[in-house]
Amino acid sequence: MSFTDPFTLCIAAIVTLSLLGLPIGHSMIAGSILYLYAAGLDMGTAAEQLLNGMYTSYILLAVPLFILSAEIMNSGSMTERLLRFCNALVGRFRGGLAQVNVVQSIIFAGMSGSAIADAAGTGKMMQKMMTDGNKYPASFAAALTAATAVIGPIIPPSIPIVIYALVSDASIGYLFLAGMLPGLLMGVMMMGIVAWSARRRHFPVEPPVPAREIPGITLRALPALLMPVVLLGGIYSGVTTPTEAAAIAAAYAFLISTLLYRTTTLAGSYQSLLSAARTTASIGMLIAGALVFNYVVTVENIPRALSAYLQAFDMSPTTFLIVVNLLLLVLGCLLEGTTILLIVIPVLIPTAQALGVDMVHFGIVAVVNIMLGLITPPYGLLLFIMTNIGQVSLRALVGEIMPFLYAMLGALAIITFFPDFVLFLPRMFGYQG
């Protein structure tokens, strides 16, 4: 491969433009157009691939709708009511507020589908609650919030799973089901780390919520708690597609916040729409760039060449998954998760299929790996977000997050080596994989 090779020029352009500060989506579009020019191909193909990919993928509509539902929840009082409910459940134990942080992430995971939304939404509230009165070290609170936010995109709904379904043609419904047990496993492991830390470091015990108040707290939180039921019930009953269910979830969050809780104002609704539009535009440009670059990768025949290369090593499916885990964990420290899903995963899918790896299981393994990259030092995106929210140093945050990261790596090992654990729920609903 020479420096004048079209694909080399394409990669060099993408890397250079990214380092100069151009968003990665724009960089991929520019690099791909350069490839088409250098290879003597029609440069209009870039626009054709972009438009065809964006406008024929009905599934992509679920992404902005999940983002909007999370923004509406954060602007109203739904999140606060959920936090009170979680506090009534586990707040009375030693390290109770820390346990609340884990439980709220498990519950909120069924509503936002985004780790960033979880950290920036409920994460801010939990950080303030845990550090008021110096109950918990700010670095521990920030580390726990970053770690628990990772659960969000594993338990449905999940924006990364939607994107994986786009590139793999796997069923979103079965992927959502497959994410439930792994997400709960990670939550249980985090609660175990919190309980161990609470006893070792003598974290405070919160005043227990009187039993007579629990029914009222539950009743006030019930409309918010029913949101995952509305969302997932529509999908698995066959009444709605995942995209239609996402639209219903956004409408449900809006109606509950405005008509029942009466906490969302016109100005608040506008800000929710504005914030959701900005996030959607950012993700949309990344997807657009990836669609054009994937055409370049296909023209270069890279997926097939890589598949033939890996199969030459006579790998077993388990060995392949170990290699994928190592690769994605390293890439997760350096690249944004959506970029990995759109660029790296499509290259690995042909090999996985040739080795007989189940596409639903592979999707959950990939998403968990990518989510762990968000909290893996030194460049995990959530680490930088929480240093800003928690006003703590990166060094202190990394020191506190390592026990949680080790626990989640243990969960990843179980998810990787025991596919039946991941596929148990999908098979209950008729999956044949």
Largest sheet: none
The H-and-E topology, N to C, reads as: HHHHHHHHHHHHHHHHHHHHHH
Question: Rough shape?
Answer: globular
Structural class: mainly alpha
What portion of residues is helical?
over 70%
Q: Beta-sheet strand percentage?
A: under 5%
Give the oligomeric state of the chains in this entry, treating copies of one chain as homo and distinct chains as hetero: single chain
Mean pLDDT: 82
Question: How many domains, in number, for the residues?
Answer: 1
How far the N terminus sits from the C terminus, by CA atoms, comes to 40 Å
Q: Number of DSSP strands?
A: 0
Please tally the helical runs, counting DSSP H or I stretches of 4 or more residues: 22
> Using only CA atoms, what is the Rg?
22 Å
Give start-end ranges of low-pLDDT stretches. Answer: none
Helices and strands, with pairings:
Elements lengths: L5 H14 L4 H15 L5 H13 L5 H14 L2 H13 L5 H13 L6 H6 L1 H10 L6 H12 L9 H10 L3 H30 L12 H12 L1 H10 L5 H19 L5 H34 L2 H10 L5 H18 L2 H18 L4 H15 L7 H10 L3 H24 L1 H10 L5
Give an account of the 3D structure:
- The protein has 433 residues and is mainly alpha-helical.
- It has one domain (42-428).
- Helices cover 76% and strands 0% of the residues.
- It contains 22 helices and no strands.
